[in-house]
Write a structure and sequence with these properties.
The structure is a homodimer of 682-residue chains. Chain A has 682 residues and is an alpha/beta fold.
């Protein structure tokens, strides 16, 4: 044991194994910092928070030539003993690294919970490892009390403490934090916990020592709004809540909301207020579930498609309905929650992710952040299916994105008996290859329709995944041809032709909740063909631009992607051929990406860079988009383009009339949309 | 005439006389910028704003060896001709410097209105010359329209234009400006006028070319709130409005407002809301008077004493009533008007001046900015009299400040017939040296009381300046002695002794509006002695600290300072001796300082530096303050300390009992304030 300050000792930090020579008498916390070993500390070495606790390793030091290290660490002083006494833990095994001083060679173990910038792993198709480094951090400070003769204001003395203890400088203070500063400092008897945003602004000051920084990550979907409440120190998800997007009152899909905004002078404002109110409600529910208050949330990350973000910000999305169009901004947006009217902490910031451009929104950027295609070696296709499908193709060398207007068919829209994925919706369908009769399963029921009494089934309609199943099965059984047209001669009791038009009965009147049959019509099949062709064509165009003939992996993002039968989806040509082993539903990637950006400043920075790096392709203006779209309307009927469908699809030529039929259909659609336009302009 | 780009020509700019050689073909605007001649321009050289107009001088060029300069400037092109045609002005005499190119040697006259950073002179005791460089500026831009294939957002393209045309970079945008951006750019057909705060944040975007940046400077007094609306391009005051501070409902003086806040749970909030509402009202009145809207005001400067600023920010001023105390901050504060709830432009900023410390507030800093004692060669004393008097002593080498608790006597408080300086208040008093009878003048009446019928006078009370006159006159006539005590033997019909206490009748029952006499009592005189002694002692202490025995100049700031008779004020010892020639009332210096800080970023910066440089002295803790205060209670009765009062005051010894009397009075005051304290704590 020596107090000679010239003397230096070897200190090894485990598990990183970093080592260096440290002047005698230095604290372990300082030693760790000097070596780049990041140990957590809220109080900045004031023996208050206990976040910097370490273990003087007793097992493993002999290999460093240390014979005993019992006396190589200064004994715990009064403050540290008090700290451990309160917590009934033996200071012998744990020590506060801000208090323990180096008096000899040491091997120190930094337990996981004491490591700053913790790595947390989030499971998904891709394993995600992230370093926790959120935009907001808490710092505990002791502030010099007001004194006669010291003319510095409270804020100036607080800044002095923050600079001294935590090396923070050039700070601003949010007005509301300044307003409450005097009261808080005195309440805490000149001790306070300060929340700092982005290393630049004090947004909250709490009296005394306080622990807990919380954030809220929300994916604002056109239909569903889902939010995760996170502990930003540990990365733990404390609560997850979701609700319907209240804007659905004003229009089911994006175009109808844009129209609503055009036709009603206060339409945009109403939809803006509706989503703001919903976010406040969701935040309240989530904080309640975690036994917290909305005021405890000091940072939010919001993602959504371009229309959702426009309405969130109170911007009229009419621009998005026209061409050419531009976004308000394609960079990330930081705005005070209070300016938007979201009820959270008054100083809370809302971060909205940047976008690549066009109709590809912040939610797509969140998907990129979650799935990291920009680091992939293999060629990845990511599709996020909604009213607009967002498509990404590429790998670390070149990544392209596009948006394809699939329309609402996959969400049950424009389908005779279509409905949302809710209880009672037919979500799975199989057709017997011999009898050509169907069996199905509805959401909320484990049994198939042929395993239960008909009157118990209560089918209400068909949702997107059910329709995909149905079209794939109809084709596999030869009930429809490769052009999507019903084969009139189909010998099935469930098939019939009424007024020259074929239809297939999926559920009989006894099997439904309405007492009426659920059928799929020729027109429904056409709607699905249009939707899947838009998606497929977009993907193929990006692949062509990328210079690849096939993709190695397909990631199906979003709730829809998680529920579809990937084989049958490929059978109808929803996405280009791929080994089904390498097709993954990745769940709500947009939400995951939002969570990651809540936890990591580096991810936010990366998103801003990726927004500029990813090549956005305006597929609508590609010269051969229309022709390719028409070509892709048919169902995969040869294994040329779909080698992985070998034996699964009937290989036969497309019906000759498919193209004529399509052209007729095309013209009708044009007329329809013209009519729609007239309505909108009234 | 030559288009050779290698060729350079002499260009002389008048009136500055700056000259240099300029490449042929360069515009005069660019040439001026290269030479550091600042010519105004909103549109950045797009021949739209006309702010950069110059005159090709026709008279004065021969001395530079130029024989003719008619052909040395490029002729006006289409855009410039259009500009002048619309304005019916001959383009021959005026030219747009952004359009006119150098084709030969030239002498150019930059008219005053085209000079950027105009010098404007504001008249006062000190002549103030300032360069207009406000925190907000307007820039006209043409933005690239949205186009297919360009994935930049509107904000990104706006930034590009601002960088290219106006060399602005690293800008942020206020949320509300971003929200309206798309609409505004399209309304203006991709032309817009952008208001930028502090070269860092876009706070307003207007469609097309717009002109007009306006600011509001307000001095929030305890009693009166006065605001000036300014054109920030020209420095012109467009409107001045004032109103009662609505907080007077909650307490006449600062201490009673602090008490109100302590005794009522929502007291602070009520007073906060009252002043915010008042500011919105005042701003509305001022903009209406100038035919503008509140939304046209994008910058505010507010000054006030520490209590006023606390209440403005919604901070409980209770801290200011205790000791030791600290201010929330002593630096300048910038806060969005919308966060305070002031109705102005949504992106408007409120700037509050920094303070030196203690009870010396932002209004005192404004006085410093207006009077610039920090550049004085001679020793200046500045006093701003209110319930607290702020005192500054020093010059460019060393400046000290202090605050002295004068109490409300000078505002008519604690005086038997005291009142505010309003119609009917006795503001001037003279006592005949022979008859010892008074004559007086009331506010709102030009005649003296002896020049008009008694019943027409309608005197209502005595205001501060009247009381000072009265005390000085009573002493000069020997009605009171140097201790301030009535001389019982006084042979005046207006003097009487009732129940052992003397009083002097100023106005008879016929002369008053109430039909009752207006008198001054022994107690009233004592109150004035206390007030003037606090001020005098503070000033003397600062002089001592500064190492000077006399001051060269006295500036009396504030409305009170403007109305008092400076000779009589010195006769009662309100301020230390000075040649009366060098005693100036400077009017509402605090308001002037606020105006200057609205017009000049440099002044704001200077204020922040001065706040740290000026030495704040806590007079209350000076060890000999109390003794000096008691010593200064008497009236100046020798010319030792007041050589300039030679022949004006009766030189005789102080009455022996003055000190005893004072001590009794002291004790009573102690009791009183203890009682007050009890009430407060109830």
């Amino acid at each position: 044991m020596s107090n000679d300050t010239e003397q230096k000792y070897l200190v090894v930090f485990q598990p990183s194994g970093r080592q260096g020579y440290v002047p005698a008498g230095q604290t372990l916390l300082d030693a760790a910092r000097d070596m780049g070993v990041e140990i957590e500390s809220i109080c900045g070495g004031q023996q208050t928070c206990g976040k910097c606790k370490i273990v003087a390793d007793v097992g493993n030091f002999s290999k460093y030539g240390i014979t005993s290290q019992e006396e190589n660490l200064s004994p715990a002083g009064g403050d540290e003993r008090d700290y451990w006494t309160k917590r009934k833990r033996d200071p012998g095994s744990y020590r506060l690294s801000c208090a323990a001083c180096v008096l000899g060679d040491l091997v120190i173990n930094v337990p996981e919970e004491s490591q700053a910038r913790k790595q947390i792993v989030r499971k998904s198709a891709t394993v995600r490892e992230i370093e926790i480094d959120p935009a907001i951090r808490q710092y505990f400070v002791k502030v010099q009390p007001a004194a006669l003769g010291n003319r510095q204001g409270d804020w100036e003395r607080l800044q002095e403490s923050l600079a001294k203890t935590h090396h923070l400088s050039g700070l601003q203070i949010d007005y509301f934090a300044l307003r409450d500063l005097q009261k808080v400092l005195r309440q805490g008897n000149w001790e306070a916990t300060v929340t700092v945003w982005n290393g630049q602004e004090v947004i909250r000051v709490q009296p005394g020592y306080a622990e807990g920084v919380y954030g809220f990550a929300v994916d604002i979907g056109s239909t569903t709004v889902a939010g995760h409440l996170l502990d930003l120190r540990t990365g733990q998800i404390l609560a997850t809540e979701s609700m319907m997007n209240p804007q659905t009152t004003y229009g089911e899909d994006l175009m109808s909301r844009i129209s609503y905004g055009m036709m009603n002078p206060d339409g945009v404002d109403k939809m803006h207020k509706a989503i703001i109110e919903a976010l406040s409600k969701l935040l309240k529910r989530a904080t309640r579930a975690a036994k917290l208050q909305p005021e405890d949330v000091t940072e939010l990350v919001l993602v959504g498609n371009t229309t959702m973000v426009d309405l969130l910000l109170g911007i009229d999305p009419v621009e998005l309905g026209g061409a050419p169009f531009a976004l308000p901004t394609n960079d990330a947006v930081d705005v005070k929650a209070r300016d938007l009217g979201i009820v959270a902490h008054r100083g809370a910031n809302v971060h909205i992710l940047p976008v690549e451009g066009g109709h590809v929104g912040a939610d797509n950027m969140a998907v990129v952040i979650a799935e990291s295609p920009q680091v992939a070696e293999d060629i990845v296709l990511i599709v996020d299916i909604g009213t607009n499908a967002e498509i990404l193709v590429g790998n670390k060398d070149h990544l392209l994105s596009a948006s394809s207007p699939t329309g609402p068919a996959f969400e049950g829209g424009e389908i005779s008996h279509g409905m949302r994925a809710a209880d009672g919706a037919i979500e799975k369908v199989r057709i017997d290859r011999e009898t050509l009769t169907p069996r199905f399963r509805v959401i909320g029921e484990d049994r198939w329709s042929d395993e239960m009494p008909a009157h118990e089934i209560q089918a209400a309609g068909i949702c997107g995944s059910g329709i995909i199943d149905l079209v794939a099965e109809l084709f596999a059984c030869g009930i429809i041809d490769a052009g999507g047209k019903f084969v009139r001669e189909t010998p099935s009791p469930n098939f019939r032709v009424t007024r020259q038009v074929g239809e297939y009965i999926v559920a009989t009147a006894e099997q439904t909740s309405t007492g009426k049959e659920i059928v799929i019509t020729q027109q429904d099949i056409r709607a699905i063909q249009f939707a899947k062709s838009a998606l497929y064509t977009g993907a193929k165009l990006l692949m062509e631009r990328r210079g690849v003939e096939k993709v190695d992996r397909v990631l199906l993002a979003g709730g829809f992607g998680a529920h579809i039968d990937k084989l049958r989806a490929m059978m109808i040509g929803l996405f280009p051929d791929c080994d089904l082993e390498n097709v993954y539903p990745v769940g709500n990637s947009a939400g995951d990406g939002a969570v990651l950006c809540l936890l990591s400043r580096e991810r936010r920075q990366r998103a801003r860079q990726l927004a500029r790096w990813i090549e956005y392709v305006e597929t609508a203006i590609e010269p051969n988009f229309q022709a390719r779209f028409v070509d892709a309307l048919g169902l995969p009927h040869t294994t040329d383009a779909f080698p992985h469908l070998q034996g699964l699809i009937p290989e036969r030529p497309a019906a000759e009339d498919v193209n004529n039929e399509d052209r007729r259909r095309e013209r009708r659609r044009d007329r329809l949309s013209r009519r729609e336009r007239v309505v909108v302009e009234e």
